[in-house]
Design goal:
GDXG_lipolytic_enzyme; single chain; 35% helix; Rossmann fold
Amino acid sequence: MASKGYTDYETQYNNRARVPEHPVIFENWTRRAADFRTSWRNLLDMPYADQPRTTYDFFYASDDAPAQSRTALFIHGGYWQSLDKSSFSHMARGLCLHGFDVAVANYTLCPRTDIAGICREMRLLAAHLVRTWGKPLLVYGHSAGGHLTADLMATDWSTFDLPPEIADRGMPISGLFDLEPLLDTSINKALHLNARTAREASPLFGPIPETGQFIAVVGGEESEEFHKQSKDLVETWTTEKLHGTLDIQAGQNHFTVIDPLAEPDSGLVTRLKQLCQNDLEDA
């Protein structure tokens, strides 16, 4: 019998075991992503660094919608060790139909690199996108991509000779912000985290962005730990100049929670647009 206060982190964080139908969900993602790539104007496999996976796909905004003030960046999940941008192209669709150009990122996977290395790659990509396309970013990411979204928001962009507002709007979806619970799980076999590196890679224990807006999203059917991760980020990060809200998507599990991103009239896409509302008010 488990002792009082014991948390089974393997069960809490092993989402594929929690959602046994995940292979069907993944197949649907891959099919819908391929359909979107063949039907939408894009640039594929654009390099942002010199590693095989440091590329992104760029999907142009719809000509039928007003141009937006930011370029959107979607970062896929997979616990920093699996999946590929080619299964997530359609996550750009909802925002493209509202006038956003959208980049969908790839990055080197663990164990070929570590989480700190992936964070460095995402910073290179963010700086590349701002310099190439001339706009600040609206960042949204799923699971590990939610973690990377938070990391970009907390980055000191002065080290890139860029202003702090280049990544001050974000939507981490089902994100991980305290990595210490992963240490004794099977997930860590490829990550090779230890107590020090897990804490260093955790946005909850790092610098808090000075300003910005974010929405931490989690599926209503996700584990207690995933709810805690998003709730803790909102509580820790919300300040006078950094506005955070928690959005629980009723009836959604860890994988289905991102499906509405493909639909322009969905609540998630509407809330992503609202994150940029201050840009219009300040223009």
